[in-house]
Design brief:
Distance between the termini: 14 Å
Radius of gyration: 16 Å
Number of helices: 5
Structural class: alpha/beta
Number of strands: 6
Order of helices and strands: HEHEEEEHHHE
Helix content: 25-40%
Largest sheet: 4 strands, mixed
Length: about 170
C-alpha cells in the first residue's frame, strides 16, 4: 500500500469516531459549512496570529469564529499522523529540548512521535525572513506539533459540526 493510501485510510479511521462528539455552545460561530455565504478559513490554523497548526492556534481560530480549519498532515516514523505543513522540522520555528534553534531540517518521517514531541514549535526565530512575514504572531513556548487525532477531537469537542476541516496530505 502506498503512503498516500495509507494516510487516507488512517485519516478515515481517526475522524469517524469523532463525528459523534457533542458541540459546546461557549463559542459563537459564523454559521454551518455549506451555507450560502462566504466561509471563513483558518489557513494553517491562523498562523499569522499563533504558532501555525498547533493546539493554541486551533483554539484561537475557533474563538475567532471560523467556518473551516485548515491543516496539513504528515506521518511519523512510528506511523502517527501529525499536523505539519513541512516534511521536515523548520529551523525558522523549531527549538530543541534545550531551547536552542535547530540548524538542520530533520525529516518528520525519521522521528517517532515521542522524539517529535521533544521539539518546540511555539515561536518564530527572531530576525529570520520567515518571522518578518508574521510580525503579529504571538509566541506560545513549549508548544509541540500535535497529532491529527488530538486536533480533530479538540475541534469536534468545541465546535461539534459547526466547523469543517480542510485536510491536505503532505508526502
Amino acid at each position: 500500500m502506498n503512503m498516500r493510501a495509507y494516510c487516507l485510510l488512517c485519516l478515515t479511521f481517526l475522524i469517524m469516531p469523532c463525528l459523534n462528539a457533542q458541540a459546546n455552545d461557549v463559542m459563537k460561530y459564523n454559521g454551518i459549512p455549506g451555507s450560502n455565504r462566504i466561509q471563513i478559513y483558518a489557513h494553517r490554523a491562523g498562523r499569522g496570529l499563533m504558532p501555525e497548526q498547533t493546539l493554541p492556534a486551533y483554539a484561537a481560530a475557533l474563538r475567532l469564529g471560523v467556518d473551516y480549519v485548515d491543516m496539513d498532515i504528515g506521518l511519523t516514523k512510528d506511523g502517527v499522523l501529525v499536523i505539519t505543513h513541512d516534511l521536515t522540522l523548520n529551523p525558522d520555528l523549531t527549538r530543541d529540548q534545550n531551547g536552542r534553534w535547530i540548524t538542520d531540517r530533520i525529516p518528520i518521517k525519521s522521528l517517532t512521535l515521542q522524539e517529535l514531541q521533544k521539539y518546540d514549535v511555539g515561536r518564530l526565530k527572531p530576525g529570520t525572513q520567515y518571522a518578518s512575514y508574521f510580525p503579529n504572531q504571538r509566541p506560545v513556548d513549549h508548544t509541540h506539533i500535535p497529532t491529527l487525532e488530538v486536533i480533530v477531537r479538540f475541534v469536534k469537542k468545541i465546535a461539534g459540526d459547526k466547523v469543517g476541516f480542510q485536510i491536505e496530505i503532505t508526502t
